[in-house]
Amino acid sequence: MSRGLAPSPTTGEAPRIQAKPRSLPRRIVSRPELSSLLGAIGVFVLFFAVAPPFREPASLSTVLYSSSTIGIVAVPVALLMIGGEFDLSAGVAVTASSLTASITAYQLSANVWVGVLAALVLSLAIGFLNGYLVMRTKLPSFLITLATFLMLQGLNLAITKLITGSVATDSISDMDGFDSAKAVFASDLPIGGITVKVTVFWWILFVAIATWILLRTKAGNWIYAVGGQAGSARAVGVPVTWTKIALFMGVGFGAWFVGMHQVFAFDSVQSGIGVGNELLFIAAAVIGGCLLTGGYGSAVGAAIGALIYGMTTQGIVYAGWNPDWLKFFVGATLLLATLLNMWVRLRTSRR
Questions:
Q1: Cβ distance 312 to 42 under 8 Å?
Q2: Block means of pLDDT (10 residues each) for the chain, length 351 residues?
Q3: CA dist 238 to 37, 106, 139, 170, 225, Å?
């Protein structure tokens, strides 16, 4: 593929030809993560000043855990948005994977890893179906995944009640393989006198892998290309259809992983949870610098967006504020981040 179509590894922007290299200050200012990083610093300083419990090391562990459960899915959601698409079904897809793993293992009286694998197959299949329908029908991904969201929401509740007779699954804590699966998806690791959830380390690893893909591989070039200039990308041989399907399947993988964490952290799963989390995943990606129009953004930015949410969620509690203000605070942060991202892009494009 022509290097003229490759995304700039310093800006994360959609492909374009540059007349001359950018100066270091301009490259720093044009980074997708800049506004989210400034926002994260501001949120941290705010709660560090007004909430004494926020300053404790154990509180930091709690903040990171809260951030990781959003951030693990927000990373593939960010890649999908860079590729120019949305997935509104991610929140209930997390629950669907949890229910599948738990019900499959319990009903078959099998090793819980059988349920884990069944849930992975289902999650990847949901992602594939979303991507295939979007590319086949040419309908907006907003509509396709909204339909998937509604269907999964109904199926989660109906199938769980049909099989278990309740809105929650039975406990699988005494089944074979539970301890080993919990060690992978939901264990606690003591570090420096505090306990850190294993999801925090998985989150960091996924961010690193996604960043490497975006900036150092041909697949990363394809992701930026299909999000910024899909027609031009197709003309030079980029597999647009399969790239976007793979991105939807990536969201499915993220949903599966967080779903497995829920199963092994809480033993039982409520079939109605997860509704609304899809907006948090998208919000984290947008706060992190992803544009709604595609072709711009980064995995690191999405991780910072999730961290802002985690700090806000726990900071409001530690400050003793009314938790009803949480969604307002997240919404205001989202709006400010979007406006700042737009301003930065306009400023850098004029220079």
A1: no
A2: 44 48 59 77 91 91 95 97 95 96 94 97 98 95 96 96 92 94 95 91 97 94 89 89 97 97 92 90 90 87 93 90 81 76 64 55
A3: 32, 44, 21, 46, 8
Angle (deg, nearest 10), helices 240-266 and 90-108: 60
Contact 270, 31 (CB under 8 A): no
Between CA 303 and CA 307, with CA 304 as vertex, the angle to 5 degrees is 90
Q: CA 311 to CA 118: how far, in whole Å?
A: 34
The residues near 5 (Cβ < 8 Å, ≥ 6 apart) are 15, 221, 225, 229, 232, 233, 236, 238
Q: What is the dihedral of CA 25, 29, 33, 39, to 10 degrees?
A: 110
Neighbours of 37 (CB within 10 A): 18
Q: What is the value of pTM for the model shown?
A: 0.89
CA distance 52 to 66: 19
| DSSP letters for 178-226 | HHHHHHHHS-EEEETTEEEEHHHHHHHHHHHHHHHHHHHSHHHHHHHHH
Rounded Cα gap, residues 306 and 315, in angstroms: 14
